[in-house]
Amino acid sequence: MKEGQKFTSKTTTETAEIAKKILEIIEKQEVTGAFVLALSGELGAGKTTLSQEIGKILEVKETMQSPTFVIMKSYDTSHSIFKKLVHIDAYRIEKEEELKVLKLEELFKDKSVLVVIEWPENIKQIIPKDVLRVSIKHKSENEREFEIFN
To answer: Which of 3, 29, 110, 120 has the fewest other C-beta atoms within 10 Å?
Structure first.
């Protein structure tokens, strides 16, 4: 993993600021299809919290919850670039075939979609190459380190 920008958060407010920085990075990227944000980190590191903060910035009206059991949830947004936020939790995925029903290949072609994937290492074969990656690590009970890299 190559070094990237590092940020530390001790509160949800600080995580919201990191989410803003991530979206600023995303909005400057040139992509041919959906923009994919891959979030890695151990259980409880803050992947879902970061996803929820991104959803708030994009003005998702629904309450976002982890899609661990349904694998994928889609939300309409009021954002100028992204009209949909698709949140995928690949934690329970054991085989790539389990994702065929989600039609991710089609989803990845849509420029109006921001796809946030938790546990991307479980589906790395089907994730596009041009993604923004965020690694989240526990530093202490209330402190997390976010490293952002391409």
So the answer is: 3
